[in-house]
Amino acid sequence: MLASSWVTTIESVVAVGKILIDGGQSKIPRRRFLYLCSAGLLGTYVRPDNVRGDGAIVQPDVETERSFIARAFEMRRLAIEQGDQPYGAIVVLNGQIVGESGSRVLLDHDPTGHAEMAAIRDAGRRLKREHLSGAVLYSSSRPCPMCEAAAAWSGISHMVYGRNAERAGRPLLCR
Ligand SMILES: [Zn+2]
Q1: Which of 19, 96, 138, 164 could form a disulfide with 72 if both were Cys (CB 3.0 to 4.6 A apart)?
Q2: How far is the CA of 149 from the centre of ligand 1 (A)?
Q3: Among 148, 143, 132, 144, which Cα is nearest to 97's?
Q4: Against a cut of 0.90, is the pTM above it?
Q5: Residues with Cβ < 8 Å from 116, sequence gap 6 or more?
Q6: If you measure from the C-alpha of residue 124 to the centroid of ligand 1, how many angstroms do you get, rounded to a whole number?
Q7: Own/partner pairs for 3-11, CB < 8 Å, 24+ apart?
Q8: pLDDT at residue 18 above 60?
Q9: 32 phi and psi, to 5 degrees?
């Protein structure tokens, strides 16, 4: 879907170019031209490189704690790059990254859009299920009480955080 958005963006640019070149004598029907313009604008809006990672997740070469923490920090870097808060998180299940995100607080105007919350939501959406039993939450910083409670609700088994892969144990509803 994202690829087709970019195709329509390119199509729109070509259409505008033809209009300009032909001096308004383009063969493209007016209605189709307007459709292409609006679809193109939408395509530009839905950026394929968004932090939430709507595309397929690229798995690390090696399934180690280090590589998972590195990915959480990559999410952090993307969040900063997109103007959000400096946090990143991923959810790993059976050695595979099943959800990932940087902070979405500023991008989505959502005070609950912490990286951990967004990564858990991403995992749920991708796996099409509400429970993440046995999953591990890796994050760039220690999860706050809200995110830890969300991890507990989702069934995540334990949390690892920070550059030194410190263990935060099993998530609890209240600390
Ligand atoms: Zn949080």
Answers
A1: 138
A2: 9
A3: 132
A4: no
A5: 87, 89, 137, 139, 143, 144, 147, 150, 151
A6: 17
A7: 3/48, 5/39, 5/42, 5/43, 5/46, 5/48, 6/43, 6/48, 7/43, 8/36, 8/39, 8/40, 8/42, 8/43, 9/39, 9/40, 9/43, 9/44, 10/40, 11/36, 11/39, 11/40
A8: no
A9: -65, -35
Residue 100: DSSP 8-state: E
Cβ atoms of 75 and 100 within 8 Å: the answer is yes
What separation in Å is there between the alpha carbon of 95 and the centre of ligand 1? 23
Question: In angstroms, what is the span from residue 70 Cα to ligand 1's centroid?
Answer: 19
Give the distance (Å) from ligand 1 centre to CA of residue 26.
53
pLDDT at 54: 53
Amino acid at 147: C
Active site residues: 116
